[in-house]
Amino acid sequence: MIIKYRILAGLILIFSSFLVIGNFYIYQQQRASLIQTYQLVKQSEVNVLSQFAKESLITENYSLVEWFFNRWGKDRPSVVKLSIENKAGFMLGNYQRPFTESKDILTVSTTINLNSEAYKITLVSEFNDVNNILEQLITQLLLTSSLATLLLAVSIWYLFQQFAIYPLETEVQRRINAEKELKVEHQQLKQVNYKLADLASHDHLTGLRNRLNMERDIEQLIQQHKKHHAPYAVLMFDIDWFKKVNDIHGHAVGDFILIEVAKLLMQDVRQDDRVYRAGGEEFVIVLNRISLEDTLYRAEKIRASIENHPFKIKKIAVSKTISGGLYHSSLIKVDKVERVLKLVDDALYESKSKGRNQITNAHILDRVS
Asked: Whole-angstrom Cα distance, residue 281 to residue 236?
């Protein structure tokens, strides 16, 4: 497409240049032709005058010659001088009007030989008619040249637009669009990354945080407790005999129970507390800035709310209980996450060994308090 535009532009430039040069050439040719024609016309006039003068000289009517030459010159505005003189320079007839030498003039002359005497007739005239015709020609050529110049200017403007402005505007617009697309893609990428991060840090079934977040959050609470003595607690439990639910009623019912338990936990914890699904039917609750008494109260409340909740899906109704282990920072000094999880895990299994459906405090098992 660009090559096509360049060929078209080149043809326009050549055509415009040809018009300008051609107009100049035409003017020069027309001017030379007009001057030559004018010179022939004036030479014919001189020949006619010489015939009249010859006849008058034969009759020796010199006054008629002088009168006629004077009259003939006045009747023609282009005539500057009309004279007849003998070989000795004596003027038999002479007409001359004021004249500015800077003007264009044409001098034509002829000689009459009569009775061994020579008479010279001289006609000096301006190019009035020629100039008028040339002015008209110049006007026409100027109009044509103006059109050619306009065409040339339009073609240059068009070329400038096509090869300078338009590509620049196109490139600017392309970059703006590309920048917009990059912003959209960046925003989409952020959303995808956020979703991926959310999927990586949350359980897809219950929507609770997963074990990746749990260990990090417990580590932060341990550090806060070291620096500011902020009390915290960790409750770990799993659903009693959960495997039987899947075996008897199927995994759909099991998933329903897990979702319902997650909802109950979110209702029973405070805004600053965190609930995690640690894996399978195991859940962990991290309680921040809480006293031992309040921890025991909330742990029991959670156990009772699950025990008393009717798990109903379609025509199936199931009752479930939980067994758990509880750790509070005021009872046992711990500086590692693994130690905290080991304590609550041991307490959980203690609850199971004692018959399930209960919460065991980890300090009861600890011998290093």
From this structure: 11
| pLDDT on residue 56 | 77
d(CA 356, CA 239): 9
Nearest to 344 by CA among 295, 272, 280: 295
The encoded tokens of residue 352 equal 């199971």
Instruction: Quote the pTM value.
Output: 0.52
Quote the tokens at residue 227.
Answer: 């620096």
Structural tokens at position 284: 């962990």
For the residues 247-261, what does the mean pLDDT come to? 93
Examine the pLDDT at 229 and tell me if it is beyond 70. Answer: yes
List Cα–Cα distances, 239 to 15, 244, 254, 309, in angstroms. Answer: 94, 11, 11, 13
Cα 1 to Cα 227: distance, rounded to the nearest angstrom? 74
109 Cβ neighbours under 8 A, 6+ residues apart = 46, 120, 121, 122, 123
pLDDT attached to residue 30: 72
105: tokens are 């003039």
**pLDDT digit string, tens, across residues 33-90:** 777 777 787 788 778 888 877 777 777 777 787 788 888 778 887 787 888 888 877 8
Torsion sign (Cα): 24, 30, 32, 34? negative
Spatial CA neighbour of 113 closest among 87, 74, 151 = 87
End-to-end CA distance of the chain: 87
pLDDT at 369: 42
pLDDT tens digits along 7-20: 666 666 676 677 66
CATH of the domain at 276: 3.30.70.270
CA 325, 328, 333, 336 dihedral sign is: positive
**Residue 27 sits in which domain range?**
2-132
Among 111, 132, 153, the domain-final residue is 132
Q: Which of 327, 366, 347 is nearest to 225 (CA)?
A: 327
Helix, strand, or coil (residue 75)? coil
β 282-288/232-239 pair status:
antiparallel
Q: What angle do CA 349, 350, 352 make, to 5 degrees?
A: 60
Q: What one-letter code names the amino acid at 83?
A: S
What is the C-alpha to C-alpha distance for residues 117 and 269, in angstroms, rounded to an integer?
148
- Domain end among 132, 156, 173: 132
Q: Provide the domain count of the chain.
A: 2
